[in-house]
Amino acid sequence: MELLVAKKDLLKLLARVGSVTERRSTMQALSNVLFTAQDGQLRLFATDNAMAMAGSVQAQIITPGVVALPAKDLLDRVRMMPDGQMSLSINEKSIATLKASVGARRFTVAGIPEGDYPAPSALPAGSSPIVMAARDVVDLISHAAFSVSSDESRPHLNSTLVEFDGDVVRMVSTDGHRLTKVEVTNSGSPARATLLVPLKAVLELRRVCDDLISDFGGDAKITITTAGSSAFFTAGTLLFSVKLVEAQFPPYAQVIPKQSTRLVRALRAALVDGLRAVSVAASEKTGGVRMMISSGVVRISSESPTGGEGFDEVAVDYDGTPVQIGLNGKYLLDILSCLAEDEVILDMNGELDPIVVRPVGERSFLAVVMPMRI
Question: What structural domains and CATH numbers belong to the chain?
Answer without folding.
Answer: 2-116 (3.10.150.10), 130-252 (3.10.150.10), 256-369 (3.10.150.10)
